Amino acid sequence: MKKRFLRDLKPGDRFLLLRTGETYTFVRRGEPPKGSAPVVLRYGDSEETTLHHRCRVAVVRQPRCIWCGAPVTRPDRGRFWCDACNERRMANIDRDFEKLMKELDEMKTREEAR
Q: What's the whole-model pTM score?
């Protein structure tokens, strides 16, 4: 992680505030009358807040899907794939399970035939 100042970030960047260790998302530059204070969103909060533009931060990389490279929508769940790939993965698991159960049934019928 490269250390930077908050003023160097672009909207949508996730960062770690080095002073407190909390994770934020940079939303936008502030508008008058508050001046150009950066508007940020703390991870887990729904209310936006502002921080000083000279706050030291470290940019946090957006987690990516291991199959297609798309951004992971809910990285806090320990997943490493996007929603679309997760649906395909679950469909493959279901198909493989059905295949194994069919093979097991065939083995049982062969055993009973002996």
A: 0.51
The CA distance from 89 to 107, in Å, is 27
**Phi, psi (rounded to 5 degrees) for 85:** -70, -30
Residues 6 or more apart whose Cβ sits within 8 Å of residue 59: 1, 2, 4, 9, 13, 14, 15, 16
Q: Do 51 and 102 lie in a common domain?
A: no
Domain housing 68 = 64-114
Residue position matching structure tokens 């009973």 = 112
What distance in Å separates the CA atoms of residue 62 and residue 36, rounded to the nearest whole number?
26
> In terms of domains, do 31 and 68 share one?
no
Residues 49 and 75 occupy one common structural domain: no
Q: Picking from 16-25, 29-38, 58-67, which range would have the lowest pLDDT averaged per residue?
A: 29-38
- Angstrom distance (rounded) from CA 66 to CA 98: 25
The count of structural domains within the chain is 2
